[in-house]
């Protein structure tokens, strides 16, 4: 027994999202049988992984009596876009604290943030300047008699990661229905919430599947996201679930970041082209293109054999193409 299905949750993601066979991509890579968990198709504001985290985070915000939601991200954050839309759907006011360079006119996620009517505040940095701005915003709202919920960047908290515990259980049921036992689930690793959630879900279900996480940010950049080490995080998840959680340690695949978070790499653009040409999957340059580059490299290196099944967890991110259009076009020119 565990408390997963007793945790307060507002349905935002729809689903179950499809588990799609990828026969043409499998043939093109010449290795294992590949599948795709289509979390790019979650039913919230253009889709993506954050919908699952927000189901829990916004249920908690509502239970706390919040009328406003403040979150943080880069200028082109998928998380910020999905939080803004989800807040609107629940009648909450979205405030986005963003870093980076505002594009004029806005494109991609930033354009959608504008369309969703989110209030946008630009933070000078990821650290003290951001924290001071958020503190000022909270004080301003409190003076106006309003109550704000704070959602950390990426929605990565032990509660938010429950969305991916749920996703792992959903995926396991789909794999059983297909009669397959996958060797691994492959996903992009940013703030680690998706990857940690999948691992916790597999541990909870005693499902022997590896979670192959492909980094999209350098270790130093990831440390800056401020999520904290896994042991304490999994312990908090176990407390929420009301059951011990024995999550085996796992290493992150660090080989596909490029120079830094957000850098457009030739391998990611090649993976984007391959996925689109073989299976009609739209990947993005910042997250899923790099995760697919990691999967393709692992297949080429023989990490997965011809008898294996491997599930690529598509976490969305298509609005991330627009701000990187020039670099993608330059990399994919014939
Ligand atoms: C499209 C997409 N994929 C993957 C990720 C990484 O997820 P996480 O931050 O949970 O590691 C993100 C995070 O912003 C994302 O937007």
Outline the structure in words.
The chain has 334 residues and is α/β, with parallel strands linked by helices. It has 2 domains: 4-48 and 158-332, Rossmann fold, CATH 3.40.50; 50-155, Rossmann fold. Helices cover 42% and strands 15% of the residues. The protein has 12 helices and 9 strands. The strands form 2 sheets. A 5-stranded mixed sheet has the order 1-2-9-7-8, sandwiched between helices. The protein has a 4-stranded parallel sheet with strand order 5-4-3-6, with helices on both faces. The model has no long low-confidence stretch (mean pLDDT 97). The site of pyridoxal-5'-phosphate has 19 residues, from helix 3, strand 7 and helix 7.
The helix-strand sequence is EHEHEHEHEHEHEHEHHHHEH
Give a quick account of the main beta sheet: strands, pairing sense, barrel closure: 5 strands, mixed
Q: From the 3D coordinates, which CATH architecture of the largest domain would you assign?
A: 3-Layer(aba) Sandwich
Strand order, main sheet: write it out: 1-2-9-7-8
Determine the fraction of residues in helical runs and give it as a percent range.
40-55%
**Helix and strand composition category:** alpha/beta
As for the number of domains, it is: 2
